[in-house]
Amino acid sequence: MPKLEMVIWDVQHGSAAYLKTPNGKHFVIDLGTGTHKGSNNTFSPLLYLKQNWGITSIDKVIITHPHTDHIDDIFNLMQLSPVYIQRPFHLSENDIRGNNPSSDKYKIEVVAKFLVINCNE
Asked: Has this prediction a pTM greater than 0.85?
């Protein structure tokens, strides 16, 4: 009998999750990344799914809110060919930028990429 499979990763200030439904659908909730203690290497749950589990397509990505700790892995997202991306529609570009103040160039690029995906959906 098929079962629901779920993995939750502790990433930065929160969690990222992967679910495989009994009928074989793949879901990702949030796009956080993390680092291992004593290492500067960034852990990407999305690349882990692709490289270790052979997952090449995600049926649905759910972004609970666009803070950088929930969208840090956005540059790897398209490698898993997401079919549908669900995210908050009520937030304006000013809201998103205002809630992600940073002088960190990478964080600014993460927000910019989210905004491109947000506008193209």
From this structure: yes
Q: Which CATH architecture has domain 5-120?
A: 4-Layer Sandwich (3.60)
| b/e 27-56 (16+ beta carbons within 10 angstroms → b) | bbbbbbbbeeeeeeeebbbbebbbeeeebe
* Cβ–Cβ < 8 Å for 14, 70: yes
Residue type, 30: D
Beta bridge partners of 37: none
pLDDT in tens, 101-112: 888 898 899 999
| Burial grade of 64 (CB within 10 A; 0-12, 13-18, 19 or more) | middle
